[in-house]
Amino acid sequence: MEKKEISIQEIFEFLPHRFPFLMIDKVLEINVQNEYVKAIKNVTINEPFFQGHFPEYPIMPGVLIIEAMAQAAAVGLKYIFPEYKDKLFVLAGVDKAKFRQPVYPGDTLILEAKGFKKKGPIIKTTATARVGDKIVAEGEITAAMKDKEA
What we know:
Layout: E1 2-6, H1 8-14, E2 26-31, E3 36-42, H2 62-80, E4 87-99, E5 108-119, E6 122-131, E7 134-147
Antiparallel strand pairs: 1-2, 2-3, 3-5, 4-7, 5-6, 6-7
């Protein structure tokens, strides 16, 4: 199954995040067979973190780039493992994280996750963030599956 262009409304159905912590704007592609997801985050000067993260030289904090990659992966998980659609995925770890280029206001982050491996309630994936054709960040994301609590 392949699904393209998941809108922000559908993203709201999958992720509990809301402003200012929702870090993806659109999912461009999910390929279940190849275990691949591609999403975007439009970075604007209006982001609240730019007020305090080097206001004279605004760059997106690396930890938020990692969060954006994790959120893109979480949406992909809902399609790749549909039996867990009612579960909550929380960030459980980040390995081999590298930040290669700064991300500036006006950039569009292209977020990709692939190769989802499941072991019990733990799922790992490799994720990258690009601006254009340049990798700006990458790492291995670990998510833990949790029951949603009322």
